[in-house]
Amino acid sequence: MSGLVCPVCGREGRGVCLDCFLEKRPIEFKELNLTFCNCGKVRSKDAWLEYSDWVVKDLVKHSLRASRDVVVENMKVSVEGDTAHITLDVIYEGKKGSKTFDLPITRSSSTCISCSRIRSSYYEAVLQVRGEDLNFHVNKDYLMKADKVRGGADYYMTSMNYAKQKAHEFLERGYFVRESSKLVGQKDGADLYRVYVSVRHPDFNPGDVVQHKGKLFRVVSLGRLVRFTEVDTRKSTTYPINALKDSKVVVSKGEVRKGNVTEVRPDGVQVMDAESFQNYELPKAGGMKEGDEVEFILISGRMRLL
Fold first, then answer.
1. Is residue 13 part of a domain?
2. Which residues contact 91 (CB under 8 A, 6 or more apart)?
3. Whole-model pTM?
4. Which of 75, 112, 150, 243 has a C-alpha 20 to 30 A away from that of 42?
């Protein structure tokens, strides 16, 4: 034995042992009250969150009260019925021990902000989505209602920021996005506006040939920046999607034709349409050889290679 003992209980060790210290200055927890909304969310400080053990653990962590002389770590929380089972490690002057606690849970009910707004038909923005293949997800927590309209749907959103977030997602996917606002009243002397976000799928898709600023381009991919290949020069380029509202589809992807190079001459090449077997004469294009498969379009009877 070292001869050193706890001056309180006589247990071997240097100074006051961990158990005696905690008996005098115990670890305590505030009462754990969980406030639930009928939608299943629970209030965590100033926010409403989906219920989970993580939320309970966070509330337990902030309700813990311990002496500054101890270090608390490795907290684990599990919930069983109306009890939170807590295990944690406590360190005091180099002495470490594991402690367990059973904390009663009291429950109360209230209405979260989202549900309150939905019940009162409150909305801050209207997301007006038009176009085919509208495959996207809307968080129902922010959706007051959705109305089907000709060519799409209108989504009445309780959060302006969420509506703008969805509009940004559409922009990244290559939709035309336009935003406007309308004065709807005042609160505490400040003007209140409702935002209207118009979202529309472009008339073109990857593989289509469009006309923009007098030139022909083949669409490679959609996005905030649309990638093209210029038909005449074969050069790659990009344009912001919102700069292409006046672009027109000249040839759709399904109308692009296939052919084979049947003759290569110093002054040009001959290409045969794989379906009609009609031959077309073209100025020689670098790198082409007999037997090559090519894609082309017909504009006013004139072949244009892609």
1. no
2. 70, 71, 73
3. 0.61
4. 75
Write the pLDDT tens digit of every residue in 229-260.
998 888 899 999 988 988 899 888 888 888 88
Q: 150 phi and psi, to 5 degrees?
A: -60, 120
User: Any idea what the CATH number is for the domain that residue 231 is in?
Assistant: 2.30.30.30
Neighbours of 25 (CB within 10 A): 14
Joined together, the tokens standing for residue 220 give: 């490679």
SS percent in the chain: helix, strand, coil, step 5:
15, 50, 35
Burial of 28 (0-12, 13-18, 19+ CB in 10 A): exposed
- Residue 231 has a CB neighbour count (10 Å cut-off) of 22
Element (H, E) at 169: helix 160-172
H or E segment at 61?
helix 53-63
How wide is the angle at C-alpha 187 spanned by C-alphas 185 and 193, nearest 5°? 45
How many angstroms separate the CA atoms of 270 and 264, rounded?
Answer: 7
Amino acid at 263: E
Q: How far is CA 63 from CA 73, 76, 140, 273, 303, in A?
A: 15, 14, 31, 77, 76
207 shares a domain with 195: no
Cα-atom radius of gyration of the chain, to the nearest Å? 34
- CB-CB contact of 157 with 191 (8 Å): no
Same domain, residue pair 55 and 38: yes
pLDDT tens digits, residue range 103-144?
888 888 887 877 877 777 788 899 998 876 666 778 888 888
Q: Any idea how long the chain is?
A: 306
Q: How many domains does the chain have?
A: 4
Reading the block at residue 181, the tokens are 């606002």
d(C-alpha 18, C-alpha 38), whole Å: 44
